[in-house]
Amino acid sequence: MSPFHLAPPGARPPAAGHTEPLHHLRRAATRARRRFVLWNICCLALVVLLPHEMGSGIATGIGGGLTVSILLFLAQAVLLLVTAHRFDRDVRTHCDPLTEPVHTHGAGR
Asked: Is 68 inside any structural domain?
């Protein structure tokens, strides 16, 4: 099973004729998950590769006890918070409205 196409354990396929709302919901959720994962993987790769390329330059002091590596870590932490907020917003604005037809018609039960 793909990590982008999650289904609860024991989930049954939707009833015939009710797959359209679920299809759009799954696509919206998959897009939000992929965006979140790709942004964080790219930045994690940058955090891992930059010290390798910079060598001891990553330990260069900037002032006040700060180093380049600490600033890099802080940037990674801020990015994680920003992407988590954006993921929540994307799910709220794109996925939540798509759940209304599922709740009213009982698709997927």
From this structure: yes
- Domain total for the chain? 1
Per-residue pLDDT at 107 exceeds 80: no
Does residue 36 lie within any of the structural domains? yes
Integer angstrom CA distances of residue 10 from 18, 26, 30: 19, 17, 20
pTM greater than 0.85 = no
Grouping H, G, I as helix, E, B as strand and the rest as coil, residue 5 is: coil
Would you give the distance in Å from CA 56 to the centre of its chain? Answer: 32
* β-sheet bridge partners, residue 67: 61
What φ, ψ does residue 63 adopt, rounded to 5°? 140, 145
User: What is the domain extent for residue 43?
Assistant: 19-101
